[in-house]
Structure prediction request, 178 residues.
Amino acid sequence: MAAMISIGIIFFFFLRPTAASARGGGVPPVIVSTCAAVSKASLSTRYDDCIHMLSSSPSTASAADARGLAIAAANLTAVRVASTLAVLDNLMVALQYCVADYEEMQGSAVGAVDDLLHGADARNLDLLSKLKTSSFQPAFCDLAFMESNTDKDPMEAENLENEKLSRLAYGIAEVLRT
Prediction:
């Protein structure tokens, strides 16, 4: 307990942000004044966010005035947008693969339902093949997102649910087969 109190005292006196750092200490005055003006004029830009975004970019170091900061911020925006577009392009490719995977899965699942409705026995290898094929498709969709190098999988929950359901259908057919 005493160690916790000591750490708290050290943090309070030596490591906590100072008023100067909280108000832009060590940050060029042009950034501080511009961020103060922008945060007062715009509800959508917080002062701390402005300070962080502008002071963390080397491209703002050469800005002598608000116009220079506007140019730097617009340039940062263009770079970020280009990066976002690249992520979206990669996600679109992954989504196209997923659409193809799910179209195949739907065909297999609908075919299996049709076979069962028309009296196919669970020992029917074509029926089992359709159900088994269906159970692998969500994993292929997940793989497409992994290979997209975006660290994003907007279909993760749906893929998991579809995988569980399709494996359940296949498992039931396997049990009926014996």
Remarks:
- Residues 18-82 form one domain.
- Confidence is low (pLDDT under 50) at residues 1-24.
